Known about the structure:
Elements: H1 2-26, E1 32-35, E2 39-46, H2 58-77, H3 84-107, E3 110-116, H4 126-152
Antiparallel strand pairs: 1-2, 2-3
Amino acid sequence: MLILGIISIVLLVGLDQFVKYLTVTHLINEPIVLIENVFELTYVENKGAAWSILENQIWFFIIMTIIILALIAYAFYKKMIYTKLGQISLVLISAGAIGNFIDRLAHGYVIDMFSFKLINFPVFNVADICIVCGGILFVCYMLFQHDKFAEKAGKK
C-alpha cells in the first residue's frame, strides 16, 4: 500500500497543480460561467482558509501542514491505520495538504477556482476537495472500522 499511496499522492498533487496552472493561464482575467448564477470557474488568491478564515496567517498554515503530514506519516509508520478506507482517507488528506502547501510556499496564497454562486460557499480547488473527501472518509473509518480492527490487531 505504501508505494500505491505515494503514487496516488503524487498524481493527486500533480492534478491539483495542473488545474491551478490552467486557472492562472486561462482564468486570471475573466471567469468562465458553466451554469448561470450557479457554478463558475474563476481565479481567486486565497490568503486564508475557507471564507478567508485566518487570512494572512501563512506561517500558521505552513506549520500546521507540516505537523499534520508528520502525524499522518507517523500513523502509517506505526501501522495505526488498519483498513483501506483509513489509508485512502489519509492519502487524500496528505495530497490536499501538500497541494495547498506548495501554493503557500510558492505564492504566499492558495489558488482557488471552483465557485458555487447559488449558495454562500467559499471558492475551492482540487486540493480542498481531497482534504474534505479524505476528512469525511477518515471520520467514517474512525466511527465504523478503527476500534473493531484495532481490537483484532491486539491494539485495544
